[in-house]
From TrEMBL:
Mg(2+) binds at E247. The keyword Metal-binding applies. The keyword Cell division does not apply. This is Phenylalanine--tRNA ligase alpha subunit. Its cofactor is Mg(2+). The gene is pheS. It holds the Pfam family tRNA-synt_2d. It is found in: Cytoplasm. It is an enzyme of class 6 (ligase). Keywords: Aminoacyl-tRNA synthetase, ATP-binding, Cytoplasm, Ligase, Magnesium, Metal-binding, Nucleotide-binding, Protein biosynthesis. Its EC number is 6.1.1.20.
Length: 332
């Protein structure tokens, strides 16, 4: 039995074979175990003799098992090292790092500029009421922007906000002047998508209310902003316009950052590009918010963030900002 066991052990190739051999001889139903179990039927004189021999055989088998195990383990380890070795001279795998979307980058830059000028950031809901978006902002009952073709209505009183201006009203209702806030966020309009229109886009609203605020403060603020955002050499001009919530109102243009104002294809030869809407807060709006227009005055402006980002980075189609094409996004 001992000889057979040793032969089995020595011919084992893998740890599995060794285990099989162990079970075959020393396991619960193993051959040597059977011998020990059969000892009950032996005479009192034979029992110690056979017991001694059986124990010696077991020790011998165990010693061989142990030796073979060490050998096989070493062999297996060597093989593993050979086949699984790492070639440290091979080039490593690229680590793909995410980055901020160009719109987020632009929005962060805009916010930083205004925060550095002392503005606080205020937020308002994207699902807005007709009251805050139109009535409180002095929009006439028949103002065209109330029309279903421009604004997404959820019901008669609730809309998706088409501008960030309602945040002005929400803020002025709660906070007394001096007020100096910006309110960036998403807006929604029932516009057909094209190169410059997206049904969902972003605006950044600005509002300053205090004693003695004038159009000169608006101009100065926007000049500092435009130079920081588009470059020191950029000039702005005010064009008369109409918004229900400001009086006077203006659209503000900047000198084309491609040609510097001399006229090129980008600015349709005019030398100017449209930047934002602005004006002095209408006395009715101040009154609607419980602020006395005899004591306080203010200015407000609202810019399309998507369009500003497009200008700054030379993006010629707004839809690129929403398609999540990595070939486009990786350029920023
Ligand atoms: C307004 O929304 C006013 N609330 C701005 C304002 C605020 C004026 C405070 C005075 C005082 P307007 O409708 O012109 O104005 O929109 C402002 C900007 O939003 C536009 O110049 C444009 O850049 C952007 N915009 C409007 N519709 C879209 C659209 N569908 N896709 C992308 N940008 C848009």
């Amino acid at each position: 039995l001992q000889e057979r066991a040793i032969l089995d052990i020595n011919s084992a190739q893998f740890t599995d074979d060794l285990e099989k051999a162990r079970v075959k001889y020393l396991g619960k139903k193993g051959e040597l175990t059977e011998v020990l179990r059969g000892m009950g039927s032996l005479s009192a004189e034979e029992r110690p003799l056979v017991g001694k021999v059986a124990n010696e055989v077991r020790e011998e088998i165990e010693a061989h098992l142990e030796k073979a195990k060490t050998l096989i383990k070493a062999k297996e380890m060597n093989k593993k090292l050979e086949t699984e070795s790492i070639d440290v001279t091979m080039p490593g795998k690229d680590i793909v790092l995410g980055k901020r979307h160009p719109l987020t980058q632009g929005m962060d830059e805009l916010k930083d500029i205004f925060i550095s000028m002392g503005f606080k950031v205020a937020e308002g809901p994207e699902v807005e009421t007709v009251y805050y978006n139109f009535d409180a902002l002095n929009a006439a009952p028949n103002h065209p922007s109330r029309d279903m073709t421009d604004t997404f209505y959820i019901n008669d009183d609730v809309i998706l906000r088409p501008q960030t201006s309602p945040v002005q009203v929400r803020y002025m209702e709660k906070t007394k002047p001096p007020i100096r806030i910006i309110s960036p966020g998403r807006c929604f309009r029932n516009d057909t998508p094209d190169a410059t229109h997206s049904p969902m886009f972003h605006q950044l609203e600005g509002l300053v209310v205090d004693k003695g605020i004038t159009l000169a403060d608006l101009k100065g603020t926007l000049e500092v902003f435009v130079k920081k955002f588009l470059g020191e050499h950029t000039q702005i001009k005010f064009r008369p316009h109409f918004f229900p919530f400001t009086e006077p109102s203006a659209e503000v243009d900047a000198t084309c950052f491609k040609c510097g104002g001399s006229g090129c294809g980008f600015c349709k030869k005019s030398g100017w590009i449209e930047l934002l809407g602005a004006g002095m807060v209408h006395p009715n709006v101040l009154r609607n918010c419980g602020i006395d227009p005899e004591v306080y005055s203010g200015f407000a402006f609202g810019m399309g963030v998507d369009r500003l980002v497009m200008l700054k980075y030379g993006i010629d189609d707004i839809r690129l900002l929403y398609e999540n094409d990595m070939r486009f996004l990786n350029q920023f």
